[in-house]
Write a structure and sequence with these properties.
5-stranded parallel sheet
């Protein structure tokens, strides 16, 4: 079995517990060395300060709270990230985050694995097939 995440530390910012657990399982099966889950922005900031993630998976909306400022801080720190979201209208982020991969929920595990692996490698978002 291929392990495209071998040795990677993945931070997952997701407020839906079952979805977060599913992403964690997908990452572990793909060989991630460590997967950290954050259900709130406060947890994400704390974890990103104590762990140096290789890649971050960000839900755009946590119980009505935008995660865009967190994404901006990751971009300033040159930490690779992607968005995994169920939001239908992405027009608000397309201009500012045009180079960032967006994986639309619901997604299958292979789509998510490919997106995370490409993001961790620094591949352009255009290489990921995204449902819009």
């Amino acid at each position: 079995m291929q392990q495209p995440f071998a040795g990677l530390t993945v931070l997952v910012l997701e407020d839906e517990y079952l979805i977060a657990m599913e992403i964690e399982q997908i990452c572990k099966e793909a060989g991630a060395a460590d997967v950290r889950l954050a259900g709130s922005l406060d947890e994400a900031v704390m974890l990103s300060g104590t762990t140096e993630p290789d890649v971050v998976v960000i839900d755009l909306n946590l119980r009505g709270e935008s995660t865009l400022d967190f994404a901006r801080s990751l971009r300033e720190q040159a930490v690779p990230f992607l968005f995994a979201t169920g939001m239908a209208d992405l027009s608000g982020i397309k201009a500012e985050f045009s180079a960032v991969t967006v994986v639309k929920k619901p997604y299958d595990s292979s789509t998510l694995v490919n997106a995370i692996a490409a993001t961790a490698r620094g591949s352009p978002a255009a290489l990921i097939e995204r449902r819009q």
